[in-house]
Amino acid sequence: MKVVLQNLTKIFPSRDKKAGKEVVAVNDFTFEIPDGKLIGLLGPSGCGKSTTLYMISGLQKPTSGKIFFGDDDVTELSTENRGIGLVFQNYALYPHMTVKQNIMFPLQNLKGADRMAKEQMLERAEEAARLVQIDELMERKPSELSGGQQQRVAIARALVKMPRVLLLDEPLSNLDARLRLQTREEIRRIQRETGITTVFVTHDQEEAMSISDLIVVMKLGVVQQIGKPQEVYDNPTNLFVAKFLGTPPINVLEGTVRGGKLMLGEDAVLDVAGVADQDVYVGIRPEGFELAENGVLACKLNNVEVMGRDVSVVCTNAASSNPVIRAIINADNKVDLSVAEVRFNLKPHKVFLFNKETEERIRYEVK
Ligand code: ADP
Ligand code: MG
């Protein structure tokens, strides 16, 4: 089921009637979510992710704009009639019911032609439980389950009605690091197996990058960029997106373009033919540095952190906006800690220029 968001906007009135301004939580969001894909809705807290999800679910009504499931305009349809499955951060299970009863609950409320016989409900519940691998735990109460197991029950409950669209709002935030990793792989597997169009909300860029077919990066209610995770990482449209994706984060420096050369301080570090002379922000991915004896960029060496496969060279440069520059290089490169200065060459496709005022990307041909 494809889901179409058409000029979707949500404005909340001000909470403080006297002083406050209204909040544009989601601003003119237009996108066609392809059938059967998993979309990661990504951005910092307060950027409008949940509001977008609630509008798709029908829990909130858009101020303007439309939502289609396939060709059906569902904008005015109630949540119950949209055929969606919803999973929240807190599992919201009924504590007095067993796992089985929790999963069956949505089926018991079906009305009219949708009503099901008891055996049929049981069968469906067992199927959903198998899918999320909790079929051994059907007789337990939620209090007898781990957080990860509780979240699986919540997912099974969302799947049991065979929703047209699955909506997940930060479903892994309450889990510890190891379970988070495991459960996100599970969600990916379940999504692939069922082929249900899924929207997954998270503020965690690594989580979104790792499971999404497409990510949507939002800031202050406005969509910044939509694309495959790797494409967005390799080709950020502005400084915000470049900084939001990647661990460790991108290094940001202040540079100048003079006569087709990018200057960091006194060092001419890159050919940027065609870019007009101007001051720029320079984003360099940590993996964009190559140690070289006669490298173009000189930095003062602070520290070297060995992390198995990789080595993190922590250094400083007067042009850097961040306190330190972090370069990640292969562990086969031996760095002599006693030296005061390290020199790097830059990988051109890992260096991005941004306009100083608009922070939009300045494009040029990488040679
Ligand atoms: P996210 O899920 O990305 O953290 P939200 O969608 O929850 O962000 O919120 C987006 C913006 O809308 C925030 O500024 C938030 O304070 C505001 N907001 C959300 N819900 C309401 C509400 N019911 N009333 C007023 N403002 C709200
Ligand atoms: Mg939220």
What's this entry about, in short?
Helix content is 23%, strand content 34%. It has eight helices and 21 strands.
SSE order: EEEHEEEHHHEHEHEEHHEEEEEEEEEEE
Rg over CA atoms: 25 Å
Number of strands: 21
Assigned CATH architecture of the largest domain: 3-Layer(aba) Sandwich
Oligomer: single chain
**Mind telling me the CATH class of the largest domain?**
Alpha Beta
* The named CATH superfamily of the largest domain: P-loop containing nucleotide triphosphate hydrolases
Detailed description of the structure:
- This protein has 367 residues and is of the alpha+beta class.
- It folds into two domains: 3-243, P-loop containing nucleotide triphosphate hydrolases (Rossmann fold), CATH 3.40.50.300; 249-362, no CATH class.
- It has helices at residues 49-57, 99-108, 118-131, 147-159, 177-194, 205-211, 229-234, 239-244, and strands spanning 3-12, 23-33, 38-42, 64-69, 72-73, 84-87, 165-169, 197-202, 214-219, 222-227, 251-258, 261-264, 267-271, 278-284, 289-291, 297-307, 310-316, 325-330, 341-346, 351-355, 361-362.
- Strands 6-7-8-3-9-10 form a six-stranded mixed sheet, with helices on both faces. Strands 13-12-11-14-20-21 form a six-stranded antiparallel sheet. It has a five-stranded antiparallel sheet with strand order 15-19-16-17-18, with no helix packed on it.
- Helix 2 packs across helix 3 (118-131) and helix 2 packs parallel to helix 4 (147-159).
- It is elongated, with a radius of gyration of 25 Å.
- The mean pLDDT is 93.
- Bound molecules: adenosine-5'-diphosphate and magnesium ion.
- Magnesium ion binds next to helix 1.
